[in-house]
Amino acid sequence: MSEKEHKVSRRQFLTYTLTGVGGFMAAGMLMPMARFALDPALEAGAESDFVRVASLDELTEEPQRFDFVVEQEDGWYSSEVTRVAWIYLANNEVVALSPVCTHLGCTVNWEGSESYPENFFCPCHGGRFERDGTNIQGTPPTRPLDVYEVQVEGDDVYLGGTVQR
Amino acid sequence: MLQKLYDWVDERLDITPMWRDIADHEVPEHVNPAHHFSAFIYCFGGLTFFVTVIQILSGMFLTMYYVPDIIHAYESVYYLQNEVTFGVIVRGMHHWGASLVIVMMFLHTLRVFFTGSYKKPRELNWVVGVLIFFVMLGLGFTGYLLPWDMKAYFATVVGLEIAEAVPVVGGFAKALLAGGEIIGAQTLARFFAIHVFFLPGALLGLLGAHFYMIRKQGISGPL
């Protein structure tokens, strides 16, 4: 049999097998490193614990600012960070809004601008939200403010993680 | 597809001759293990380079988690080894590879010595090889401190005491390496900088010279 009758020549066969074996070894070497680097993107975020933030009789129909402290685990570094919630009563239901603007993450304030009473106002790009957190058409944000998970036990109000609406 | 892409680049930049200069060269019979199995001793230099590539890659990935700070260095190493997926493998590659580089380099040196490959006209390449040897030892010494545990700390204490024992310039050398009188925060930052920037830079330059010379002069003849 001459070389021409083979679909794959000896040289090609060797090229394929050597490239294949080499590729397999390179993958075995690089795969752990790639997975190592991707780890933070692939690991699910930690559940957040509920923290006591306020007592029921402090709350009114008007959103009020409450600061509270949570334990934060950041890789090898754990620390206590301060979170903010705007809490008010709607038909005796406790609503706790996150102050993080849904446009680009700046911090909103209730009646933060004198020109817009009865609104959450974001100083960065003039984003505005209604009392219940709904974004106002014609301002940059495209969705309502996130809400904290709320638990009421007796007279105490506990807040957990934030949820998108 | 790949061929077309290659042709497109080649048509503009004429890269084929470059490829030939780098990779396409004769392997003499006396260094080819397919002809004489004992010729495997000629692989040690290439294997040293292969392990070095692994060291550079795994080291780059380790710096994604490691912080060179005396408060957090140990914690970050503990975290990347025990909490991050495959961290034990990536750090293991760097840890064991460090010893393997020294072993392979030593075998390569023995081969060069016993085949007389260092003789004229290759004396300069021997000199560069010895410089690479010192750079590798420096990488091993500076890398050893980085986990900032007891073993790392006291190995560095001892290493710096040895440096201090050098006549006349010893005290200066120790202060320069440790970044002052105390073996602490500044020592760790300094060793990290030396380990990931200065010595690898020197190593790549020396390796370039090493490989350029072996291509220029060819592999030494059979015994």
Automatic annotation (TrEMBL), chain B:
TM spans (from-to): 39-67, 96-114, 126-146, 152-177, 189-213
A cellular component term, taken from the record's GO annotations: plasma membrane
GO molecular function: electron transfer activity; metal ion binding; oxidoreductase activity
Keyword Kinase: no
InterPro entries tied to this protein: Cyt_b/b6_N, Cytb/b6-like_sf, Cytochrome_b_N_euk/bac, Di-haem_cyt_TM
Protein topology in the membrane: Multi-pass membrane protein
Record function comment: Component of the menaquinol:cytochrome c reductase complex.
Assembly and interaction partners: The main subunits of the menaquinol:cytochrome c complex are a Rieske-type iron-sulfur protein (QcrA), a cytochrome b (QcrB) and a cytochrome c (QcrC).
Record's protein name: Menaquinol:cytochrome c reductase cytochrome b subunit
Originating organism: Alteribacter lacisalsi
